[in-house]
Amino acid sequence: MPELISRDETRTRPLVDQSSATLELIYFDVLKLPSGGSESRRLPQYESLYVVLSGKVDIEVDGFRFDGVGQRADIWSGDADSVYVPVGAEVTVTALTDGVEIAIAGGICETRYAPFRVSPQEVDAVDVGSPDTHSQRRIAHLLGQRQNGRCGHLLVSELYAGEGCWSGYPPHKHDTESGDAESHHEELYHYRFLPETGFGGQIVYEEDGPVKTFMTRSGDTFLLDRGYHPTVTSPGHRSYVFTILVGKHRRGLVQRFDPKHEHLTQVIPGIDAMRAKFK
Length: 279
What we know:
Helix content is 3%, strand content 49%. It is mainly β. The strands form four sheets. Strands 1, 10, 11, 12, 15, 16, 19 and 21 form an eight-stranded antiparallel beta sheet that branches. Strand 15 (175-178) and strand 16 (182-194) form a beta hairpin. The model has no long low-confidence stretch (mean pLDDT 97).
């Protein structure tokens, strides 16, 4: 069942791994380092993407060094700089500045690929929705279709929603493997807001099941294994959603829209472009 991890909840690190009762395929953690600080990590079951949220770091992957990764002061200051890490690789991150924060997004993977960097210039973004339809958002694909063939079933993106706008809208789901109609992908959201006092709502429902609604705040993390899952941002605040998707049977994501609301795909701009970017 879907689960919200509150920012106030005390958990051992990492935030999400194979011990999760909700997700089977996804790994997630947030690493914070002071200038000069370092940490090493090895994930025997997961391929991963180390996404620099803020600050600058050196990242070493099995002895191969990526220097000066990170070109933004915070998540609101441009696109991310990231490094892909193959399953089982030894990774050492060394902070070159204060205020370093890194999101580690992982997915179960059986094939070992070569490490590579995804610079801000290689981020593949798409604009969806509009202020008039209260659905404006920008989705920046860090690990998307441009990396097909270079990694497994892991997809990673950063979503920026306008004030008072909906994302994941029209409501869609991806919990059943059904050819061209739908793929089975687990999903994780990690939320931030600007200003940080902002908040949002995360709704989850199934065709014949109950509706669950969660209040989301900066630093909360949502785990999704099933159901339609629209998201809304409070007026007066921008929202950021760090998103991890991992396919159970394939890499490309195929979303199934709720039939009651599918007509909105012809009203809200950019839906077809959004769908194409995930495949």
